Amino acid sequence: MNNIYDDNLAKLQAQMKKDGIKAYVVPVTDPHQSEYVAPRYSLERMSLCSFKGSDGTLLVTQDHAYIYTDGRYWIEAMDELKGTNTELVRMGDFNVPSIFEFIKTNHLYPLAMDFANVSYTDFKLYKGVGAGEIIDKSYRDLILPKEELPFSKIWKVEQKLLSTTYEQRIDAVIASLKKQGVEGTLISSLDDIAYLTGWRADDIECTPVFLGYMYIGVDGDVKVFIHAQNTPEVLSNTEIYDYDEVWGFLKTIEDKYVLLDPRRTNEKVVSYFKKGFLLASNPSQLQKSIKGDIEIQNTKEIHELDGLAVLKIWYWVTKHIKENHEKYSEYEIASLVDSYRFENPRCYELSFTTIAAFRGHAAMMHYSPTKDDSSIVDGEGVDPILLIDSGGQYYGGTTDITRTFCLGESSAEYRIDYTLTAKSVLDLANTIFLQGCAGTALDIKARENIWKRGMDYKCGTGHGVGYMLGVHEGPNGFRYRVVPERDDSHMLLPGQIQSDEPGVYKGGKYGIRIESELLTVRKFETPDGLFNGFEWITYCPLDGENIDTSILSDEEIQWFNDYQKLSLDTLTPYVKDDKDLYDFLVEKSKPISRK
What we know:
CATH superfamily of the largest domain: Creatinase/methionine aminopeptidase superfamily
CATH architecture of the largest domain: Alpha-Beta Complex
Strand order of the largest sheet: 4-3-2-1-5-6
Helix content: 25-40%
Strand content: 15-25%
CATH class of the largest domain: Alpha Beta
Radius of gyration: 24 Å
Number of helices: 17
Number of domains: 3
CATH topology of the largest domain: Creatine Amidinohydrolase
C-alpha cells in the first residue's frame, strides 16, 4: 500500500535519475549544525521517511532508502518504518559499515548533498580518499513548499544572571585566538553566539537561540549577522548585519587565516577561505561550559523548582493511577508535567519535548507521545512502568531530569533492573578522579554494573547541560568510547554540569532511566595533583520501594540514603504547607536498609 513517504521518495528518485545523481544525503541539521532544528530544516527528511527521531541521516539511492541512526532510536525506528520502503541501518552496531563506507564501497557517485547543511568534518568523511564526485545540491523544493526562516524576537539575559559581561566574554575569545596564532574566527554555532552576546530567542523550539553568524577578529573587529531588526541592544564595538549578508562578508575575509570549528561549521562556509584555516573547537565551547558562581547558584535554585514539579507528578500518578485505579493517556500525563513546571514564573519554556513513556514505549529512549498517538497508562498487571524524562528552560538555567515509577505490582526482574540503574547512578556520582580525566575514563563507573549482567544501554551515560541554552552541550559528557562527532570527551573541569543517566531497556517490556545532573567540583589537592568529584544539583527522591538491597554494598546504601535526605531537606520548604504532598515526600525519601 502506498504512503506519502514512499510517494515522495519515488518523486525524488525519478528526479535523481534524470539528473544522473546516484545518491542523495538528507541529514536533520541546519547551516549551524544544530542538534535540534527549526521545521524548515527537519521537514525534508520527515517528508521522505516515517522515522520521527530527531537524530538520523537519510541516504536515498535511485532504488533504495536507508535511515542511519544510533542505538537510542533503534526500537522506535523499527516500529515507525513498518510498511514503508526505508530500511533501518543500526549505526554503530557491530560490523555495520558507516554511511561513508557504504557510499564508497557501492560507488554511489555522483553524490548530492546541500553543502550548507553538512559540517566540514562530515564532508571530509564523505569525500574520503578515492571518493567520486560530490555535488552541492538540494532537492528540498521538489518535495516541500518554500518556507521562510524563523526569526523570533531576541531578548537580553539580565546581567544579574551572568558572571561575566559581554566585553569579558569577547576578550576571552580574542586571547585564545591570539594564543593560537590566527587572525580571527567565524562562529556558526548558535549556542556559542547566544552565549557570547548574552542574548536569547526562540528560533528553535526548546532551545533559546537565534539564527546567526559571528565574526571575531584579534584586532577587536566583531560582527554579528542576525535578523537585524530583532536586536535588543547595542553591543560595544560590535557591528550588526542582516543574516544573509554573511556571504558577502566572507568574500572580504577569504584571505585571512582564521579558526574554524570543523564540527560546527558547514562546508559552504569553509569553502570561502582560500588562505587556509586552523581547525579547532570554538574557544567559547569550553568557556561557556564552565559556569561561574552566579550561574551555579541560579542553576541550583531552578533545580529545586524542577524537582518540585517532578515530585508533584509522582504524587499525582500514585494517587490517581496506582491507588485510585484511574486511567490516563501518556499525552495527558506529559501535559500535566509541563503544567507543573510552568507554575513557576521562572520557567519560560521546556528544554525538550516531555517524554512520558509507559511499558514498552519506555524502552524507546526518545519516545514522546502526541495527542493522536498515545498509550493508556494504568496500574494493571505486573510491571506497569512509567518513565518521565522532562526539563525546563528557566531564567537562571536549564534542567533535565528522569524518574521511573512503578504504578502497581513489580516483578523481581524489574526490582533488580531498577536497583542496577540506581547503583550505576550512585557509583558515578560519588567517584573521585584526578584532574585530566575525561568522561570516557569515568563512564565505566556506571556502565560496568549493567555490563556485568550482559546488558548495555546504547547511548552515553551523560551529556553536558547548558545555561539557559541547549539541554545537550559539549565538550563534557560521559561515554565509554570517543565519538568524534559528539565532541563531548574533553577533560572534566570544576564548574561544568553534566547529566548522570544510565538505564536498562527491554524492548516490549519496559525501560528504566534515572537521570540527575552533577556539578563538577574540586574535592582536594595533594602532592599528586588536583582531585575532583561531583555535587548533586538535581533534587527528587529515588524509588526506595523497588530497591533490592542485596545487590548494593553498604557504601552504596549509605549513598542512596544520603541522596534521599538531600532531596527531603531541599524540597521540604516548598511543600511544608501542603500536608498530603509533604507526607508523600517524607514517605518517598525514607532511608533503606538490609532486610
